[in-house]
Write a structure and sequence with these properties.
Blueprint: H1 7-16, H2 23-43, H3 48-71, H4 73-83
């Protein structure tokens, strides 16, 4: 499992924005959870409850990213580039 891989990004976000309720901060936290769950599922392929949790977190992150892209496209592009995740095809 990959642990503490996104601690520098999260601490950087905390310094820049002290609001843990901000969209960017939530997306960073969801991305960290997604990467940890993905590495867990590579070892435990039949863990269906974790698969369900992963799908729920992916949906939440997608909704937040969709909201951010509608409200502020510049912040959306910057966040996508910083986290190295793919841009959604459906917006």
């Amino acid at each position: 499992m990959v642990k503490n891989s996104f601690i520098p990004i999260i601490s950087e976000e905390k310094k820049k924005e002290e609001n843990p309720g901000s969209v960017e901060f939530q997306v960073v936290n969801f991305t960290d959870k997604i990467r940890r769950l993905t590495s867990h599922l590579e070892l435990h392929r039949k863990d269906y409850l974790s698969q369900r949790g992963l799908r729920k977190i992916l949906g939440k992150r997608q909704r937040l990213l969709s909201y951010l892209s509608k409200k502020n496209g510049i912040r959306y592009k910057k966040l996508i580039k910083q986290l190295d995740i793919r841009e959604s095809r459906i917006r």
